[in-house]
């Protein structure tokens, strides 16, 4: 399959997934209080973002005039993709027992290290970004959205 066609099909699959998921969230009951976001808020937010990105990818795939070079993906990219899938699985598996903060900090650090080219890796910068992003995400969801995140054996904030 040509790369352009593959991108169009992928975009349509993700757009369909987003619309179907949005449809499924209609069955989630509305919040009991006026100031509560409700259980459907976060799934709809994620599905909406997936839908917007799918539409953008579809538009770019249709408008962009790519030549089909037929190049195979670099072996290094395939290894990175496989390691990313394994890391996401481990992240999900360790989420409750280890807790959000520790699990997210370790995952995010490992993912940034994996995706950053060796020539541009600066461990202290990556560690700083990792810690700031993890704490910001934790505070946003725990304090801003009042979502209870797993603490794990170590209690934080």
Q: Could you give a short account of the major beta sheet?
A: none
User: Radius of gyration, rounded?
Assistant: 19 Å
According to DSSP, the number of beta strands is 0
User: How do the SSEs run, as a string of H and E?
Assistant: HHHHH
End-to-end C-alpha gap: 51 Å
Give the oligomeric state: single chain
How many individual helices? Answer: 5
Q: Estimate the strand proportion.
A: under 5%
Basic shape? flat
Helix content: 55-70%
Mean pLDDT: 85
Briefly note the structural class of the backbone. mainly alpha
Low-confidence stretches: none
Topology (elements, then pairings):
Elements lengths: L2 H22 L16 H23 L11 H24 L1 H16 L7 H22 L13
Helix pairs in contact: 1-2, 3-4, 4-5
Describe the protein:
Helix content is 68%, strand content 0%. The chain has 157 residues and is mostly helical. Helix 1 packs antiparallel against helix 2, helix 3 (75-98) packs antiparallel against helix 4 and helix 4 runs antiparallel to helix 5. The longest helix is centred in the middle third of the chain and has 24 residues, at 75-98. The protein is flat, with a radius of gyration of 19 Å. The N and C termini lie far apart (51 Å).
Put the structure in a nutshell.
It contains five helices and no strands. The protein has helices spanning 3-24, 41-63, 75-98, 100-115, 123-144.
Please describe the structure with a list of short key phrases separated by commas or semicolons.
68% helix, mainly alpha, flat, single chain, 157 residues
């Amino acid at each position: 399959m040509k790369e352009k066609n593959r991108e169009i099909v992928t975009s349509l699959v993700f757009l369909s997934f987003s619309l179907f998921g949005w449809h499924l969230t209609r069955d989630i009951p509305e919040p009991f209080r006026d100031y509560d976001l409700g259980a459907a808020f976060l799934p709809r937010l994620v599905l909406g973002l997936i839908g917007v990105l799918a539409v953008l990818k579809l538009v770019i795939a249709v408008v962009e005039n790519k030549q089909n070079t037929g190049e195979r993906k670099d072996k290094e990219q395939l290894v990175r993709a496989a390691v990313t899938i394994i890391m996401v699985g481990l992240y999900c598996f360790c989420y409750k027992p280890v807790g959000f903060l520790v699990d997210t900090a370790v995952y995010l650090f490992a993912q940034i290290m994996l995706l950053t080219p060796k020539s541009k890796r600066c461990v202290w910068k990556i560690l700083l970004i990792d810690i700031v992003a993890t704490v910001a995400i934790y505070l946003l969801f725990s304090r801003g959205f009042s979502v209870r995140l797993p603490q794990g054996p170590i209690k934080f904030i």
